[in-house]
């Protein structure tokens, strides 16, 4: 057993998975620390109701950022990794990615201008959240991940988070400043990411590339299904947050978004693990599909066991966690957190399934599942909010995650089922 563990360790070290994971974990650790401390600062200063509005507009900005990113955070890792030794091709990938993001951001600004003539709630908060969207234009994570050099990204991200937290403490003094929270968060990321883009370009001696219609069209075509999937995934998790203000229940919005913010960090950690595994997983899959299937199953159960232990801990300490973050005992928030506590464990079961479909380039299956889950989330939202039992609202994410797991498991096992 000892020899197997030692052998596994050395094999992992040779594949850069450990290095990737710790670098990505360092990023996530600093982000998680920032978010936990910012929740402490924000919720105690502006109150749980205003916190809900901040999270509502933040989620709106993140949805817009998902569209602007256009799946390049995922395909960019692959494209950079495949062309890391060819400076000319790297330059094309780098600038094509930026051009497509900037084009979509320009369209977003036009849409945002038109939204002022609609009854969308908290429009002034949304305007102050634009820097969060702009940050996604310059987000260089896929570039640094593609060449497996994340240390500099990690360091600058940590410094940005520290400055951001200090700015929140310095400038957010009451509920009247609540709208500026997202502005501060977004500007910190925008400036950091822009600086890192310049550094990346100079580090690899990339040459400037003007946008070509053929290059833009190729990205638009190749990443369409992936983008729809990402938007759907975002909406699956947030549609209830968008509906709650329209439904007129700001109290539930504050409690739900607080718990969703906590559980969301577990999701981001899973994405971190997936990104760390991605480069090596692509190599294993390229060598042998059978080896990949064995690797996927073993890794899936290991990750799930770890996150299930975390889920149990969150369930037991739910009331304590809410009190520490908000300095008050909130029964609704505690109930929601206990219900949502097992979402990370279910997501962990599914994270390698999604990666499997990406490696197999089964974007059509990803797209179909995304569409089904989107309509499922709409139906679940309607049923929960019309049931007359507000305590069921916390089950939204749990139900949607279970549906996603079942569908991905079916898609993966579909060939063997057809053979039988």
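Q: What amino acid sequence fits the structure above?
A:
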């Amino acid at each position: 057993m000892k020899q197997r563990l030692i052998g596994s360790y050395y094999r992992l070290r040779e594949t850069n998975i450990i290095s990737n994971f710790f670098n990505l974990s360092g990023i996530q650790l600093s982000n998680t620390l920032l978010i936990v401390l910012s929740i402490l600062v924000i919720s105690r200063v502006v109150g749980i109701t205003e916190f809900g509005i901040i999270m509502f507009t933040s989620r709106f900005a993140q949805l817009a950022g998902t569209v602007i990113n256009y799946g390049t955070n995922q395909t960019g890792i692959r494209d950079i990794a495949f062309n890391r030794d060819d400076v000319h091709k790297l330059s094309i990938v780098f600038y094509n990615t930026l051009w497509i993001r900037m084009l979509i951001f320009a369209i977003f600004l036009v849409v945002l201008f038109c939204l002022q003539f609609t009854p969308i709630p908290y429009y002034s908060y949304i305007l102050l959240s634009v820097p969060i969207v702009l940050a996604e234009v310059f987000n260089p994570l896929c570039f640094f991940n593609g060449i497996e050099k994340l240390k500099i990204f990690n360091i600058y991200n940590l410094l940005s988070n520290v400055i951001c937290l200090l700015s929140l403490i310095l400038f957010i003094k009451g509920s009247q400043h609540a709208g500026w929270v997202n502005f501060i968060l977004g500007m910190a990321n925008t400036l950091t990411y822009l600086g890192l883009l310049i550094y990346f370009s100079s580090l690899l001696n990339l040459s400037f590339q003007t946008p070509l219609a053929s290059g833009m069209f190729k990205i638009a075509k190749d990443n369409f299904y992936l983008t729809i999937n990402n938007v759907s995934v975002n909406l699956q998790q947030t549609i209830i947050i968008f509906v709650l203000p329209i439904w007129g229940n700001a109290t539930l919005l504050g409690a739900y978004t607080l718990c969703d913010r906590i559980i969301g960090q577990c999701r981001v950690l899973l994405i971190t693990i997936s990104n760390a595994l991605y480069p090596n997983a692509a190599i294993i899959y390229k060598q042998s599909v059978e080896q990949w299937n064995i690797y996927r199953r073993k890794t899936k159960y290991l990750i799930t066991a770890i996150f299930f232990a975390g889920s149990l801990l969150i369930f037991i300490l739910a009331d304590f966690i809410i009190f520490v973050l908000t300095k008050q005992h909130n029964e609704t928030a505690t109930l929601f957190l206990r219900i949502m506590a097992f979402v990370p464990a279910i997501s962990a079961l599914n994270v390698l399934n999604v990666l499997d479909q990406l490696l197999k380039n089964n974007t059509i299956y990803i797209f179909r599942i995304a569409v089904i889950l989107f309509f499922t989330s709409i139906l679940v939202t309607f049923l929960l909010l019309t049931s007359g039992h507000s305590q069921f609202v916390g089950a939204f994410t749990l139900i949607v995650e279970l549906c996603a797991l079942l569908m991905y498991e079916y898609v993966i096992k579909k060939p063997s089922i057809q053979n039988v």
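Q: And what stands out in the fold?
A: Residues 1-15 have pLDDT under 50 and may be disordered.
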